[in-house]
Write a structure and sequence with these properties.
Elements lengths: L7 E2 L1 H14 L4 E8 L5 E8 L6 E5 L2 E5 L11 E7 L2 E7 L5 E2 L5 E3 L1
Parallel strand pairs: 1-6, 2-5
Antiparallel strand pairs: 2-3, 3-9, 4-5, 6-7, 8-9
């Protein structure tokens, strides 16, 4: 798997991250990672964390989203967004590399 284009982050996701940081008072980056597991083979792991030296850092207005080098190829050309619906609010990944995903949207296969 070769890496060419990094993921992008929507304004909505950056804005929600800013709200979370303001509410918690804890300055952290939003880490988006891909782990093995889930019902479709891979799953997204989205947490607040400190950036590591080898992370890709995507930044806007002081808000930082980080992706580790192992997860980066799985997130090529992906869009990191924030969705608010009647059933809940969450960060979501629109991943063009995923060939299938589960109903909850946190697990996918390639």
């Amino acid at each position: 798997m070769t890496f060419s284009l990094p993921p992008t982050v929507t304004d909505r996701a950056y804005n929600r991250l800013a709200e979370i940081i303001e509410a918690t008072g804890e300055v952290k980056a939003l880490r988006v990672a891909v782990d093995g597991g889930g019902c479709s083979g891979f799953q997204y792991d989205i947490t607040l964390d400190d950036p590591a030296e080898d992370d890709l850092c995507l930044e806007k207005d002081g808000q930082i989203v980080v992706v580790d080098p192992v997860s980066l190829p799985f997130l090529e050309n992906a869009v990191i967004d924030f969705s608010e619906e009647l059933i809940g609010a969450r960060f979501v990944i629109e991943n063009p590399n995923a060939t299938a995903s589960c109903g909850c949207g946190t697990s996918f296969s390639m």
